[in-house]
Design the sequence.
């Protein structure tokens, strides 16, 4: 029985979406899971009056709430009885096997690093994101914001962790790894890229050199590595594309009856063809490199996203991703 | 009479699109312009057998071609009789007032910096790009790839040049200037952003702090500043969005008759609503910071894009953008 801790406070629709997501995870999961809800007991009990899964869902009271506006470091120190801190402590103490949160991302990342510590050989934890590709499938980009700056050997570690994640979770046997840069030629890039090329080409990773910004969607590599600043800017830019499309189509619809009909058809086609562009529906992303399975989601995560995050957490525990990363990083030249 | 030099070699559809764009610029321009074509005389004469603008279009022979695959620095040294080098020398010598090229971007940037030199007070030339906004209008992003790295005082100079460009060319009286970062809070950013904040807030620029990747399309600032690495990655990512949309809609259309019809309607709506996302149609972007007006375009520039580039060059000469930048950067704290 894999025990998933779920933060139920501090996100945009807490605890409604979390509880609803937990219930659908329990009803749909093909694996044995138990869900432990961290949050205000009274609120959660209200939501669970008709609990269809007695024994498979539990509540651990946490009276404090780290909000989206809280400064992470201060909040982690001051709100020790928050769902985030209590959940991460439970994970450290082995009372749960994974922790899932749609709350304050900075607090979850900071708290996880503080409470769980880094896996030996990991300089910085990282978060990845799945970017959908024009031809289907997706590109994994690491890091998308766990750490703003990066050093060449961090990018190597990102490559190792990313390769394991792609292989174990998505079944990509020998994933290609590339550096995000301003041109494909070896000579193109900033200092970080040029230095990282040398280090990455000495590993046993399937390193294919540089790719450009366009190649994330066009799918030239399975894994694209960059510093968290660049990755975060691209991720947030990507998230604004759907919003922009919707805004433009709405404005078009306002022009008249015919336009309204054409806009409705367009919206339905885009909904069908760009489903994987809706970042909410992916569920969250793992924080890789800490001693424990931690999944971070959008503040606005839907019940479906929460459910997907729970499934992802269960899978990462079942496949012992942390253990595989630990073993790989202990070897010379990261032979994965 | 403003004399625009046009590189007619080395782009994807050279010299066809260049000549065709030049002719439509001459027929549509409301200002007095003369166009000087730099390239292989024989090829150009063939294209101009029925020149409807005798006296307003001239050919300067340049036998060598810098191709897209040429390494810029080597090409600039070895191909002195190329259209790019000859055009830039003509600009330096005052034989033309501006130079427009859809050729090898690196060679044009490098050649312009070498031949024309930087405006006093400019540490690095920059190129900007217009990103369309969800609600219409656009955001100007500087630098999108002239220099991969950046220092805080370069970003200040980018801010000054960008402000002048936005004001003089687009009539935005007091454009807002922001730093691209991973969060809006002052504490969010990499070293470059945190240092640049201090410098920018001491200028008389209309500096509003940080914006995130999503705010480029959502339009939180008129001008967004970043190092050329980040800017280039975002620009190329953005360029791949339309390609991805088209690919997805084509795949949808292949599913059946009804889908084909719905896809056609979708394509027409997107064409109408996302016209400004077609980066080709903007025409090119100016290389700001060198002693002379230089416009750089996509290798795949259409005749319409070439025409727009010629108009932009004419406007920049007429409004003496280089002179305004020179005056502004000579002042203390860049009061613009």
Sequence:
């Amino acid at each position: 029985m894999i025990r998933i801790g779920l933060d139920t406070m501090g996100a945009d629709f807490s605890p409604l979406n979390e509880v609803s997501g937990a219930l659908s995870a329990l009803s749909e999961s093909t694996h044995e899971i138990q869900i432990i809800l961290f949050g205000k007991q009274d609120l959660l009990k209200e939501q669970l009056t008709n609990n269809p899964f007695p024994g498979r869902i539990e509540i651990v009271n946490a009276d404090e709430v780290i909000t989206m506006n809280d400064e992470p470091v201060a909040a982690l120190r001051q709100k020790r009885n928050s769902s985030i801190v209590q959940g991460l402590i439970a994970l450290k103490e082995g009372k749960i096997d994974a922790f899932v949160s749609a709350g304050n991302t900075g607090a979850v990342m900071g708290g996880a690093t503080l409470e769980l510590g880094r896996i030996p050989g990991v300089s910085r934890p990282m978060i990845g994101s799945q970017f959908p590709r024009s031809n289907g499938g997706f590109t994994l980009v690491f890091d998308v914001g766990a750490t703003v700056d990066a050093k060449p050997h961090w990018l190597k570690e990102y490559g190792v962790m990313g390769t394991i994640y792609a292989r174990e979770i998505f079944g990509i046997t020998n994933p290609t790894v590339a550096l995000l840069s301003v041109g494909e030629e070896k000579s193109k890039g900033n200092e970080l890229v040029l230095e990282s090329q040398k280090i990455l080409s000495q590993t046993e990773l399937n390193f294919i050199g540089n790719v450009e910004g366009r190649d994330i969607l066009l799918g030239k590599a399975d894994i694209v590595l960059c510093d968290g600043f660049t990755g975060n800017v691209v991720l947030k830019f990507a998230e604004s594309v759907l919003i922009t499309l919707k805004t433009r189509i709405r404005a078009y619809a306002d022009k008249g009856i015919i336009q309204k009909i054409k806009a409705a058809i367009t919206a339905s086609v885009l909904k069908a063809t760009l489903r994987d562009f809706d970042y909410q529906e992916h569920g969250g992303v793992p924080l890789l490199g800490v001693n424990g399975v931690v999944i971070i989601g959008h503040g606005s995560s839907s019940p479906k996203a929460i459910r997907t995050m729970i499934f992802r957490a269960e899978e990462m525990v079942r496949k012992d991703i942390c253990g595989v990363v630990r073993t790989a990083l202990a070897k010379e030249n990261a032979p994965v």
